[in-house]
Amino acid sequence: MTAQYPESRLEPLIPMPALTPEALRTAVERLTPSRVPAFVQDLVEATTNAQQAQSLAPLRTFVHTWGVFVAVQRHPSRAARLRHLEEVISAGAEDPTEAIAEIRSIQAAAEAEAGL
Question: 15, 57, 87, 109: most buried, per Cβ within 10 A?
Fold first, then answer.
């Protein structure tokens, strides 16, 4: 289960964008166009929540979530490995401990890449 995802010489597909909604949206459009509606919905919700709470916390959470998403998705092998690990956990056929640990490792690497 702890097999590392192989990094191709062609990866990453795009440079890590700035952690702004506009730059992240452009990256999502290039990497996973099917996720743009979810991105827009999350941005609207974060903006609304920030206004209602008079706090930047919802926007920070939005940028963190989508920054990590982009950092993962810009490496196809890493994204594929993450999807596989999520499927292993969802199937419930195996002890998820190793898969969870590897998911945490992937997310930590993505956070570091994104500067979060």
Answer: 109
The SS3 assignment for 59 reads: helix
Encoded tokens for 62: 């939005």
Residues 25/39, Cβ–Cβ less than 8 Å: yes
- Distance (Å, whole) CA 49 – CA 58: 6
Give the pTM: 0.85
- Segment (H or E) for 81: helix 76-91
**Token digits for 39?**
């991105």
Q: Which residues of the chain have pLDDT under 50?
A: 1-2
Q: Where would I find the H helices in 17-75?
A: 21-31, 36-53, 57-73
pLDDT at 1: 46
- Determine phi and psi for 115, rounding to 5 degrees: 80, 30
The whole-number pLDDT of residue 4 equals: 52
* Amino acid type, 111: E
| Cα distance from N-terminal residue to C-terminal residue, the chain | 27
